[in-house]
Design a protein that fits this description.
Blueprint lengths: L3 E7 L2 H10 L8 E6 L3 E7 L2 H9 L9 E7 L4 H18 L3 E2 L14 H17 L7 H5 L2 H4 L8 H17 L6 E7 L5 H16 L19 H7 L4 E4 L3 H11 L9 E3 L1 H6 L4 E6 L14 H15 L8 H8 E8 L12 H13 L3 E4 L8 H11 L15 E5 L2 H15 L2 E5 L16 E3 L2 E5 L15 E3 L1 H4 L4 E8 L3 E3 L6 E3 L7 H4 L11 H15 L3 E9 L2 H11 L7
Parallel strand pairs: 3-5, 6-10, 6-11, 7-8, 7-9, 9-10, 12-20, 13-16, 13-17, 15-16, 17-20
Antiparallel strand pairs: 1-4, 2-3, 2-4, 14-15, 18-19
Helix pairs in contact: 1-2, 3-4, 7-8, 8-9
Protein name: DUF2075 family protein
Organism: Brachybacterium sacelli
Pfam family, one: SLFN-g3_helicase
Length: about 575
């Protein structure tokens, strides 16, 4: 039996007055409410629904809304209502049926007394709202979607919130000045760098479009940013989000099209920025470690274009200049989201360039480290474990990873079957691999790319949103299609490109078994050869990224016998699960 009720009324003065007279808790009780017209929706929480509805009725941006649903529960308090408001905002945005009108004032993710008991009620409230047509999908289906994972309505943790607030306050100071600025947000895989970048985009747009007749919650994290002077400061700014990787860029652009405040936001390649008609006021650069230097690019036309852009921007094709130089030349204020341990090709800007940038921003107090693990449920312990397993100093055993699954398989068919089972149960379970097999199937001649233990598999057919494609469960994703994405379970194939040298007993990269041609070629333009040590760094970076895709678990299949023995000593052989 549920203790909550959902009150329905029209979004009109007379309906608000009638409800105030009829329902005492409409005026003085913590509630959560939804206002909508079948297309747009606004979610809020308040201690006085009567007063808040009257304020909303004065808002020009909400004049078209028609219906109100108010969630009332005798056990509600302010903390529970903030939590439910945050949950409904995130789920509505991830479901995609409605366009969400909320601002990013500072969605909370704070613990409070008896939160777990409230969570059970929240699930019941969700199901009731779903039965009334407010949601089209279940919570697991929503949480597995890009709309949810890349939503600008994520609840930030403390260090993310501090970074966002500090950067925004810095922009408020810097925007009226003539000098340029640079900030860096640095973090390991899964610390939420992309989410921070998307959140910043939405927050800047919200401030620019702020309706002063609409009340801002005084205790929200970013409430002090919503003032008249700031609105004028951010209004009309040219803001862009730069994403070097094609798949992630198109996924983010797709999400932005569902968010009214971001519908026309620019999601760009570095080439787009360089070729833009006007300079940008603010550029946020996601996966900045994938920006490239002067080298052979992914396509010959891009190599030629690289030189043309550098000459146009700087007057000469100086081979020491890179895409980061382009972006800083075209933007007054640049914010980099960065993890130098995810650089995977010789064309990527060298880590030492970013080391200098980090030193520069540290001295200016514009460097923000993210350390809290937001993706992997095994936490930082798993991240450290995965990193050291792909090193010459492996751990003696497995740390306490709570409920996180890590398992070694000796049979690829068995691992694939486990992935299928986990996908049926949780969704988003996929096979991924290092670039240790040639892409033979691209020739459409019936050949398979990966053949092991009687199992035949092909690389991903789609290079855009492969994870959600219909054939993904029977294919293998590469670093270029999964970097920046989350899975529930990852089955990682560590191929013959990474092995243990039997003489030195150290890790080595096998160039003959590494088939990413752009990942091992020399950079003749810069006069730099890709050494064996360089290649080993790229290959280990690839596998460290792949090993951190799974939120709930990671399964492993290792080709090299000596490296497989190392994993077996630490993990133990695979065991059948009930």
């Amino acid at each position: 039996m549920t203790d909550f009720e959902i009150e329905e009324l029209r979004f009109a003065p007379e309906s608000v007055e009638e409800t105030r007279t009829r329902l005492p808790r409409f005026s003085n009780w913590p509630v959560v409410y939804l206002i909508e017209d079948g297309h747009d929706i606004y979610v809020g929480e308040t201690g006085s629904a009567d007063r808040r509805m009257r304020q909303h009725l004065k808002s020009q941006q909400k004049q078209h809304l028609r219906e109100v649903r108010i969630v009332i529960d005798d056990r509600f308090n302010g903390s529970a209502c903030l939590d439910l408001e945050s949950l409904l905002i995130r789920l509505l945005d991830g479901d995609g049926k409605f366009d969400l009108l909320n601002r990013n004032e500072g969605i909370t993710n704070q613990d409070y007394y008896q939160r777990s008991e409230y969570n059970d009620t929240f699930k019941e409230i969700f199901e009731e709202l779903r039965s009334r047509g407010y949601f089209e999908r279940t919570i697991p289906q929503i949480e597995n979607s890009d709309l949810f994972k890349l939503s600008p309505y994520k609840a930030l943790n403390t260090e993310q919130g501090i970074a966002v607030l500090d950067i925004m306050e810095g922009l408020v100071e810097d925007l009226p000045r003539s000098e340029n600025s640079l900030a860096v947000i640095q973090g390991d895989p899964g610390t939420g760098k992309t989410i921070v970048g998307i959140y910043l985009m939405k927050l800047m747009r919200d401030i620019a479009e702020f309706d002063p007749t609409d009340e801002v919650e005084g205790d929200s994290m970013f409430s002090d940013l919503f003032v008249e002077g700031n609105r004028e400061l951010f209004e009309g700014l040219r803001i862009g989000l730069v994403v070097p990787q094609k798949s992630l860029r198109l996924s983010i652009a797709k999400v932005f099209r569902k968010v009214p405040a971001l519908r026309d936001a620019a999601v760009l390649t570095p080439y787009d920025v360089a070729d833009a008609e006007e300079d940008f006021d603010v550029l946020i650069v996601d996966e900045a470690h994938r920006l490239t230097q002067r080298a052979s690019q992914a396509h010959g036309t891009l190599t030629k274009r690289f030189g043309e852009i550098t000459r146009r921007l700087f007057g000469t094709d100086d081979y020491s200049l890179n895409q980061l130089d382009w972006l800083r030349a075209r933007s007054r204020h640049t914010i980099l989201l960065l993890d130098t341990a995810q650089s995977v090709r010789p064309a990527d800007i060298e880590p030492e360039v970013f080391d200098r940038v980090i030193d520069e921003t540290r001295q200016l107090e514009r460097w923000y480290p993210l350390e809290t693990q937001m993706r992997v449920k095994g936490g930082k312990e798993y991240l450290d474990f995965a990193r050291t397993m792909i090193s010459d100093d492996p751990p003696p055993d497995v740390p306490d990873l709570q409920d996180y699954e890590v398992e070694l398989f000796d049979d690829l068919g068995a691992m694939h079957q486990r992935i299928r089972e986990r996908d049926a149960e949780f969704g988003l379970a996929r096979l991924v691999a290092g670039y240790a097999w040639e892409w033979r199937s691209r020739r459409k001649n019936g050949e398979y790319d990966i053949e092991l233990d009687g199992v035949r598999l092909n690389w991903n057919v789609s290079d855009v949103d492969w994870i959600a494609s219909k054939t993904a469960l029977e294919e293998v994703g590469s670093i270029h299609t999964v970097q920046g994405y989350d899975l529930n379970y990852a089955g990682v194939l560590i191929g013959g490109d990474l092995r243990i040298d039997p003489e030195t007993e150290l890790l080595a990269a096998d160039k003959a078994n590494y088939f990413d041609k752009k990942g091992k070629q020399n950079n003749r333009m810069r006069g730099r050869d890709t050494t064996d040590d360089d290649l080993l760094q790229y290959v280990t970076n690839v596998y460290r990224v792949l090993l951190t895709r799974g939120m709930r678990g990671t399964y492993l299949y290792v080709v090299d016998p000596l490296l497989r023995d190392r994993f077996r000593r630490v993990l133990g052989a695979s065991r059948p699960r009930p």
